[in-house]
Amino acid sequence: MQKLKSMLGRIVVICLMSPAVFGQTDFNITKINPVLLKDADAVVRLDETVWEIKSQAEAVMKCRSVVTVLNEKGEDGHGQLRVRYDKFTKIIDISGNIYDASGKQVKKLRNSEIEDYGYGGGADNISDARVKLASFGKKSYAYPYTIEYVYEVRDRNMMSYPGWSPDQEEGSAAELSVYRILAPAGFKFRYKEYNGVPAVVKSKGAEGVDVYEWSMKDQPARKSSDLYQLPAIDRTPLVMAAPSDFEVQDYKGNFNSWEDFGKFYGTLNAGRDALPPAVAAEVKALTKSARSEREKAELIYKWMQAKSRYVSIQLGIGGWQTIDATTVANTGYGDCKALTNFTLAALRSVGINCYTALIRAGDEEVIKPDFPSNQFNHAIACAVVDKDTMWLECTSQTTKPNFMGSFTGGRYALLVTPDGGKLVRTQDYKAIQNVRNSRALVKLGETGDGEVDVKVLYTGLQHESRARVINSGSKEEQKKWLLNHINLPSLDLQRFELIQGQDPSVTEKLTLNVRNCATKTGTRLFVKPSLLSRPFELPAVTERTTDFYLPVSDYNFTDLDTVSYEVPANYKLETTLPAFQIASAFGSYEMKTTFENNKLICARKVVMNGGRYGSKDFAAWVDFLKKIRKADRAQVVFVENKL
């Protein structure tokens, strides 16, 4: 009986992976709808993912991809297959084929064409994850040709179910994309559809298996990404799936709610925050004279940064279970979970309430808060000090306490409390916090060349790029970076200094010789008041049919620029002085100029508000940019006084 069941199970697998299920047996390129060939480098004939749940502890994933490659770009996007595996994931099979333009099979993938290498290796990355890389090589066959990859893996890490998004790569069209989940009859799991993905179709499979299927057909090639597209999680069709009850290694849990998620993480890491007695005594001595909880937390954070370094450790359940605080104290290294746990242990040793916070880190990264599931890739610390929260990024040796920045700011985090998980927001960084305050003194020569001294204070998100340069670049690298980021066409950088403040902030001091700082034409000097100001790019189109997004990490800012020109004494003002005030839902612009005692002073203020805006607002956004660019091009004309 058992043998018969195994055979039936195998028959189901064969049927699922058979091209006959969707009629995908003929790969002749003449069968492709001409509409899909427009602007396409490749056409995905079939993209199929099957997630077959065996139990709370095991599943099998089967994937099949068939792509007609039209040119080298299409081959670059689809020519290789990467399959990751680790302690919990075993690759059962990988196969591949190439078909010519008529659909005739001309080549099979050989074992020698499948490489195996460590995943994310390096001195600061310890992992049991590996990758199988399958490839037929560059220019595998004369274009156009069709490449097929099929693979199957067994997964025993049931904390995460694969999500599905049929959104194809840029330049690729898609005939058919399918996601299917198979579950034992009555097996409970959760799923949710986003961004217009067609609703699930439910049916019964062999032996009463529950079948859930999503599919999309005939998607034309996606053109180059526009300047203001929404984040992928908000614009691409998406299906998210997650377990209710699950097992991984010797642990059981469920993800029915964020509270449950937090309980599982807390159970997984319970009892791992004990410090060695000598280290606990060191922390108490360190904070003995502190006058507040905030001061204690800041002292502990800086102490931790000096004592440890980040090493990514992903071994088995160690991807979620932390190294204990004693080991980190003895070795001086750990991953994000371990360094966070070590910091929390130190904070608790002096009576500060604190919690692990799970978060999705990265610029503009967000999660779907309405779907409790494993959407996190990072851990940070949250301390409650003087009735306020303090966020601590424990993997960095240079980040200031309570600065989240673009890496973890402005998004949801899951606090792991004794009562379970609690979803909270990390702090946003508004325009008033992300300031560039620039003051420049320009000594103009009669030829239009200028000697320029500049002092700029950067705060909030605006300081991040320069802080990275300070902390990771040599003096020569810092100079090269500055030359690439100073908005002037022709200059000699005589001296520079970058100073990191405690706020956090960076002060930048520059001494420049600028050729053609003003334009000399005959007896006149044409001076641009907005020298050194941030330029704004105009989009290529003025209308759109979808919402648009101004990334808050780039568009939440305040620029304050003051430029003082010392004009040669033998020149007099010939034109009126420009002044502008522009108001918009996207921000504001203001410029004022004065001239007295041969000194031209231009004060410019720009405030931008990033975020999501409706398609109907796009014309207003373009108009706002045009008005700013026109104001920035205003010139003041001086004429030589020959009296």
Automatic annotation (TrEMBL):
NADP among keywords: no
Keywords: Signal
Signal sequence coordinates: 1-23
Sequence ranges assigned to domain Transglutaminase-like in this UniProt record: 284-385
Superkingdom in the source lineage: Bacteria
Residues of the DUF3857 domain: 64-222
Pfam families, alphabetized: DUF3857 (PF12969), Transglut_core (PF01841)
Name used for this protein in its record: Transglutaminase-like superfamily protein
Organism field: Dyadobacter soli
Lineage of producing organism: Bacteria, Pseudomonadati, Bacteroidota, Cytophagia, Cytophagales
